[in-house]
Amino acid sequence: KAGVTQTPRYLIKTRGQQVTLSCSPISGHRSVSWYQQTPGQGLQFLFEYFSETQRNKGNFPGRFSGRQFSNSRSEMNVSTLELGDSALYLCASSLAPLVEQFFGPGTRLTVL
Amino acid sequence: GNSVTQMEGPVTLSEEAFLTINCTYTATGYPSLFWYVQYPGEGLQLLLKATKADDKGSNKGFEATYRKETTSFHLEKGSVQVSDSAVYFCALSDQVGGYQKVTFGTGTKLQVIP
Asked: Which of A23, A91, A98 is the best mutation test for B, with the most CBs of B within 10 A?
């Protein structure tokens, strides 16, 4: 069974640009969550989608948005990038919302 | 709100030493508890879990027991290997306001030296 895949694995952007990250969950998993991981703040919850609906949202500004498609694949978008957005963005999928999550390898975003 | 507190790292041990990484939690409901491990350059992997009080989760020689009376879920391993060097995260999943929410600890870095 294929694991969670995230694309791209690495991204370099400049301030002010926008970026879209993609996540394909494990087959059959309908819940997808996104996290931001930085050395200073640790692992912070961004949002969670279940059956194309955002069910939970963390404390991030509106520049961070996401969506989920009918095949459970999810995208995360960050607009007007800031230097502080440099982080590892992790996607996790689960059968039911936020229980026993399976993580992807992450997308390393660097904002210059 | 819910919270997870892990012991500060890094923890440095010699190979074959005994490992304990402390984790305590606060939760309003009846959470499920998890330990995840993150190897360098990778995402998190579920290491073990426990869903109710007194449950013991175990995997790859690691164990943790859900202690409701002390609100703890300490991770233990009898004999660590160099390959266990990683960051370990304690987490809980609980119903809050009708929705399932997950809370992670800050992570504890383990370094095992030969």
From this structure: A98
Q: Do B89 and A33 touch (CB under 8 A)?
A: no
Contacts of B41 in chain A (CB under 8 A): 105
Could you report the per-residue pLDDT of B12-65, keeping only the tens digit for each? 999 999 999 999 999 987 899 999 999 988 889 999 999 999 999 999 999 999
Model pLDDT for residues B27-36, shown as the tens digit of each residue: 987 899 999 9
Contact across the interface for A100 and B34, Cβ inside 8 Å: yes
Size (chain A), residues: 112
Buried b (16+ CB within 10 A) or exposed e, A38-53: eeeebbebbbbbbeee
Question: Could you give the CA distance from residue B108 to residue B90 in angstroms, rounded to a whole number?
Answer: 9
Candidate from A45, A102, A104 with C-beta closest to B102: A45
Q: Are A9 and A105 in contact (CB under 8 A)?
A: yes
